[in-house]
């Protein structure tokens, strides 16, 4: 397995296959689609991601997508209970009885996603299930990627991934049978010494299947928990690039400050030092997502005004304030 101090020859072979990457001619380092694309997709695949627990807003989209015929596949070391069945509070039937979310499970070792994805590309090549037109018109480097994947042996891929050749080929066929696919991944893929190589391998598969720039298809990285994801999507970030800042300023008629803001740790440190008078938390729960909850609790207690703006109640809201705490309701965007 990757991450161990000793990497045998099979690991080196799969690692080599993933370091060769196709490149798309144009694009940005962000999601290539939106939640709206989930509804109408043929298939949504979650890699190293437990969205019901970490991004609960997504479950409403999954519920509506599944009602439209979308199937869901999960590639993960653990059969997450939340991905198996989830109780969606805004849907009466689901709130009472729960909703099945996943149709296909593919088990891998911890860190085995890398070899699983190399094997998926190898299977697609052997099936001649590549979107050759898309690859020719919108990518470079395909030949090197194909040669590297085909050079990896099935024995090595199975050892490194923890999955069987039959399962990997079944996953590849699923991508062919349901071409409008969306790949979603979270920190289960990125927080490894070989995280960059794993994402390269995932992008190789996505580009080989033409999943970029088309409705109900896409490559979607997700952050660690819903507060981070939601806050960032509406511009609540400590640093904004000049182009975005100028666009927002023109659109809203208010000049956006040029200086950087505070990331989560700096917010906690500032609150603990008494340097923050008002602390407005839009989504998220610092008490359970930031290290050292005792220190965090003392820190968020200090500001004279603390505002919680969220779709659910959280433990942070129960921390006694030094003066005033205000809880504001919110709703999901769908």
Any overview of this molecule?
With 334 residues, this protein is an alpha/beta fold. It has two domains: 9-224, Dimethylsulfoxide Reductase, domain 2 (3-Layer(aba) Sandwich); 228-329, Rossmann fold, CATH 3.40.50. It contains 17 helices and twelve strands. The strands form four sheets. The protein has a five-stranded parallel beta sheet, with helices on both faces. The protein has a three-stranded parallel beta sheet with strand order 10-11-12. A two-stranded antiparallel sheet has the order 1-7. Helix 1 crosses helix 12.
Ordered list of secondary-structure elements with their pairings:
Layout: H1 9-19, E1 23-24, E2 43-47, H2 51-54, H3 58-67, E3 71-76, H4 81-84, E4 85-86, H5 92-97, E5 99-100, E6 104-107, H6 113-126, H7 132-138, E7 139-140, H8 142-151, H9 154-161, H10 165-177, E8 181-185, H11 187-190, H12 195-208, E9 218-221, H13 226-233, H14 242-252, H15 264-272, E10 278-282, H16 286-289, H17 293-301, E11 305-310, E12 324-329
Helix pairs in contact: 1-8, 1-9, 1-12, 6-9, 6-10, 6-12, 15-17
Keywords:
334 residues; alpha/beta; Dimethylsulfoxide Reductase, domain 2; 17 helices; 12 strands; 44% helix; globular; disordered N terminus
In short:
It contains 17 helices and twelve strands.
């Amino acid at each position: 397995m990757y991450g161990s101090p000793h990497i045998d020859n099979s690991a080196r072979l799969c690692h080599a296959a993933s370091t060769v990457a196709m490149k798309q001619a144009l694009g940005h380092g962000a999601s290539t689609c939106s939640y709206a694309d989930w509804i109408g997709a043929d298939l949504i695949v979650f890699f190293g991601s437990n969205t019901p627990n970490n991004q609960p807003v997504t479950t409403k989209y999954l519920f509506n997508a599944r009602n439209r015929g979308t199937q869901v596949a999960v590639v993960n070391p653990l059969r997450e209970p939340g991905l198996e069945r989830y109780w969606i509070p805004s849907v009466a039937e689901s709130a009472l009885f729960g909703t099945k979310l996943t149709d296909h499970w593919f088990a891998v070792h911890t860190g085995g996603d890398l070899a699983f994805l190399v094997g998926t590309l190898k299977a697609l090549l052997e099936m001649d299930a590549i979107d050759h037109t898309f690859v020719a018109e919108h990518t470079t480097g395909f030949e090197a990627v194909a040669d590297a994947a085909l050079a990896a042996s099935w024995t090595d891929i199975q050892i490194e991934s923890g999955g069987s050749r039959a399962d990997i080929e079944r996953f590849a066929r699923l991508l062919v049978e349901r071409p409008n696919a969306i790949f979603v991944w979270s920190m289960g893929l990125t927080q490894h010494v070989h995280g960059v190589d794993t994402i390269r391998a995932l992008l190789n598969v996505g580009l080989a299947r033409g999943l970029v720039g088309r409705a109900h298809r896409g490559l979607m990285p997700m952050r660690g928990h819903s507060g981070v994801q939601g806050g960032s999507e509406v511009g609540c970030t400590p640093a904004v690039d000049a182009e975005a800042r100028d666009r927002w300023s023109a659109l809203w008629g208010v000049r956006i400050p040029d200086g950087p803001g505070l990331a989560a740790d700096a917010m906690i440190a500032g609150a603990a030092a008494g340097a923050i008078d008002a602390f407005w938390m839009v989504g998220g729960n610092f008490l359970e997502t930031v290290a050292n909850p005792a220190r965090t609790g003392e820190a968020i207690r200090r500001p004279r005004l603390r505002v919680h703006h969220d779709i659910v109640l959280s433990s942070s809201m129960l921390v006694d304030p030094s003066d005033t705490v205000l809880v504001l309701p919110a709703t999901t965007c769908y």
